[in-house]
């Protein structure tokens, strides 16, 4: 279940590749080639459009890179030596070390390496094991610091996925979809290798397995805080068609009574679920096909609130604050915080006035046709690529929000080359910029102690050379 949560977050986080995060993933090698071809095409178009681009000699290139890096405003920058591999993502495991997912051209080989940012030392953390390969672009780290990734084993009949996470001893442990109860006594497994129907449980002390639910595709067990049972998606036996899968109902299983109770909410496509407030409200990522959807279900009031349901997701981003138990939705010029009952707790406008690109865009004049006029919030988005906030990351204590402000994705129409790192209060208010210029930042992460922010980035003149910038707060 956890890997699906990360997929759902990525779906909302990287909306331009929304279909890549579904359960029926496309071939990752083709995806890797496509992404890199697009990057190379964009770089080529930019070079052709800018005759002043001076990268003719190695000396000029090196000096230019050093000067630009020095001017970005990072507290420290580590240049990564990856032996020609591409760096897809990083996870911060402590203040000085990261795990990086690196892959060869075409993603034929993908591995995890552990890198010390102070010494530059690196070591393979996990590599291909027989037929089991690390799944491309699967390394993820949520705002609570949990690090997970997936592997894939291809056979003649099917592809088998496994999920691993980093335990408290920084060792790789295979968890798949197994969910441990808060008291540590039980494991709930919705997708066991025996392919048994329903959700099965295993007692930690004895290892004895028991069948708890009977729906063929019952899924997503969320343990109640007191370990008395769990909320889950109950398979009704109907199929929604069009690739949507089973028709689900929200249900509750009581361990003491060995009883399933169907809860009074609409059946249909529920997507993936997770706790907004444990034991009180559930957040469902129920967007399907070409749409993005989010629904909050309050278990105390038996009410459900569809807070997002749109196919216009060019500027949409969300992040769950697991400390404050609130949901942040960024879209159409504002940050909105939602509480456990689906109510907006605050609405904060996107920040403006940092530079010529973040100035507020003036309203477009009325059009003489029926064609809709695309509205831009920032001047950086006028007659160019998308420009706005993205990649929201909450600090470990939930009090601060780090995000990227600038180009969303990559386009030859971008007015700026990348993004700047912004820091705000948890609701998006009082934003300040931490970096001095725009640069191609792939992702950002807080260190577990909450004292620093790490950013994986490249420079426009050499997209195959990766750096990790550190901002000490």
From TrEMBL:
Entry keyword annotation includes Protein transport: no
Comp. bias regions, Polar residues: 40-62
Keywords tagged on the record: Signal
SUPFAM superfamilies noted in UniProt: DPP6 N-terminal domain-like
InterPro entries: 6-blade_b-propeller_TolB-like (IPR011042)
Signal peptide location: 1-22
Positions of the UniProt region annotated as Disordered: 38-62, 178-197
Keyword Acyltransferase on entry: no
Gene3D superfamilies: TolB, C-terminal domain (2.120.10.30)
Protein name, entry field: WD40 repeat protein
